[in-house]
């Protein structure tokens, strides 16, 4: 399964490095293909002070944690996404949150599912009939089911 990781998930994993978001992103036993856009990196820098405050990490620790998380996510250059997908994605986000257009475009481009904690975004998309969203609970269920299936094979 292809999962598109948006900024809210990544920042939550940075703030709580031992929490479920970091676990789902970093644990190799959860074999989801995780993608994000380069815009994610911009967002991390934009929210750096907030992340440092709530995570209680030093700047050096934060940089190391960003590196460790990014190793588990494939970043895709937004320039690879066709114009038609950008237009469709903008139509979906224009009255919800235009800043998330890149994540929707990437979801469409990869035929993946968006993983986000942004309720305004997910509710707005669902109200427009958009179905390519996965909640943390559902992802966690699938992750642990796959883990159990693997254990049964061994």
Task: Characterise the protein shown here.
It is a single chain. Strand 4, helix 8 and strand 5 (133-134) form a beta-alpha-beta unit. The chain is globular, with a radius of gyration of 16 Å. A five-stranded parallel sheet has the order 3-2-1-4-5. It contains nine helices and five strands, in the order βααβαααβααβαβα. Helix 1 (7-15) packs across helix 2 (20-26). It has helices spanning 7-15, 20-26, 39-46, 48-55, 59-70, 83-93, 101-110, 119-127, 136-153, and strands at residues 2-5, 33-37, 74-76, 113-115, 133-134. The chain has 154 residues and is of the alpha/beta class. The two termini are 22 Å apart. It has a single domain (2-149), classed as 5'-nuclease (Rossmann fold, 3-Layer(aba) Sandwich), CATH 3.40.50. Residues 150-154 have low confidence and may be disordered.
Tell me the helix content.
55-70%
Rg, alpha carbons: 16 Å
**Major beta sheet, strand line-up:** 3-2-1-4-5
Name of the CATH first level = Alpha Beta
Strand percentage: 5-15%
Distance between the termini: 22 Å
Estimate the global geometry from the Cα principal axes: globular
Q: Which regions contain 5 or more consecutive residues with pLDDT less than 50?
A: 150-154
The largest β sheet comes out as: 5 strands, parallel
What is the name of the CATH architecture? 3-Layer(aba) Sandwich
CATH superfamily: 5'-nuclease
Strand-and-helix sequence, N→C?
A: EHHEHHHEHHEHEH
Mean pLDDT: 90
CATH fold field value:
Rossmann fold
Structural class: alpha/beta
Number of DSSP strand runs: 5
Q: Counting H and I runs of at least 4 residues, what is the number of helices?
A: 9
Count of domain modules: 1
């Amino acid at each position: 399964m292809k999962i598109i990781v948006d900024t809210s998930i990544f920042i939550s994993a940075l703030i709580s490095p031992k929490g479920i978001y970091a676990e789902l992103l970093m644990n190799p036993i959860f074999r989801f293909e995780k993608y994000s856009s380069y815009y994610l990196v911009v967002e991390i820098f934009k929210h750096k002070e907030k992340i440092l405050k709530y995570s209680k990490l030093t700047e050096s620790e934060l940089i190391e944690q960003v590196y460790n998380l990014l190793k588990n996510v494939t970043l895709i250059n937004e320039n690879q996404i066709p114009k038609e997908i950008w237009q469709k994605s903008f139509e979906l986000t224009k009255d919800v949150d235009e800043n998330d257009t890149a994540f929707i475009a990437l979801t469409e481009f990869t035929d993946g599912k968006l993983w986000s904690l942004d309720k305004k975004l997910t509710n707005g998309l669902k109200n427009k009939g958009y179905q390519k969203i996965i909640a943390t609970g559902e992802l966690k269920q699938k992750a642990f089911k796959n883990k159990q299936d693997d254990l049964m094979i061994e």
